[in-house]
User: Fold this.
Amino acid sequence: MIDSFSPVNPALIDTCEPGIGPHDGYPVEMQAQDTIDVLKEACGDAATDFPQSLWIEPANWADAARDNDKYHTWPINYVDRFTNQTPTHECTCHALRALAEGCRNKQRGIIFPEGPKKDFRYPQSSKGSTWLSPNSIYGEANPGQRGGAGCQQVLEIACRRGFLPEKIQPAEYGLKHQLQGTTGKGGLNQSTGPWVRLAGFPPGWEETAKWFKPLEVVITDTWEQVVSLILHGYLVEVGRSGHAIPYAHWNVAESVMGYVDSYDVVRYDSKRTVQGCSNGAFAIITMTTPDNWLNPAGTLAL
Amino acid sequence: MKLKLPDFVTVLLVLAAAWLAFGGELPNWVSPSGKPTAATYVHVVKTPIPDAVSSGLSKLNEQGIVATHYAKGTTDGPGDVPDQYKVAVAASNELPFLVTQAGDKVLRVVNDPRTEEAVLEAAQ
Assistant:
């Protein structure tokens, strides 16, 4: 269970995957392009400024965190799996899939009390959680495979035409079009396979992808807005230090932000790091919704 | 108090008259089985969802009820109101509200629930 008043292992704060650093999936030149204006343009009609209705005064963060602890309503409680990108440059897309899946699971109303666990599958995931392929975005964002992608690039793609589902799903949803999740390590809950460019996607894939699109994206310009979104249960994507990640839990005791790293582990950013990357961060607050949660792309005859 | 036979017949006659008054169908606030199959918290997008409500919905899911959030205006893949929410969004105009259903029949509407108990009680 998440306890936002417990100490955090210092070895997990402001560190990266051993053997990986420095990260190179989110190069400095791409980070420079992820300005608020560019992100807004990338989202098109889905873009929205931070709404005052979601603002929480910093003086009230501890109380809000206690509620999230009590009811298991942190963003991380809507994430039911890890992904593992090792050793690829797919980080922006692994982070984006966490935002999309977390938003979708929040809409679905099922809470995963302990968040993602390595080599574990929640039985409740089979009630409508659909696992989305980071590669279905990255294959278009970077046709050269190596070198990473920008946050605004992958967000634009997702908002324009949606994700394809992974080849591994928690239930038999009768999906017509699927794609391997990663060319990296993957795992129990993530499929792996060869590199596929957009031209190699299964014919007619757009018909499935349109069911998995962000509809509304909040773009932040302060770190307090980021914490407010986290306290309301929305994951927030940021890029920093060559690596993009989804923020998923605020630890009050240490003022550090937990994130679901795409290496089967939860790590933390210090307050200073959060403050340094919150200008141009974003959260997906609504996704397209199925006509029936057990038929997520409308292909089964129920 | 024990019901006498003539009273019992009267009750049956009243129920039969009510059934005929509704065109031979059950009124929409009556579930054939009496058990909810869905509970939907309908809200305005970009407004806070009480944590206790989310927790209550999750507990209803554990009971086999499809208990979800729906931000009004959210669409399905083709851009329409998702079929599963068409009845729910029509149940009230005062957002937010919680609606419980048995199939397409609305069982209860609770305006602006804020506690776990209110959510669980609406599905009893």
In short: Chain B is about 30% helix and 20% strand. Confidence is low (pLDDT under 50) at residues 22-31 of chain B. Chain B touches chain A through 30 residues (CB under 8 Å). Residues 68 and 103 of chain B are 15 Å apart (CA to CA).
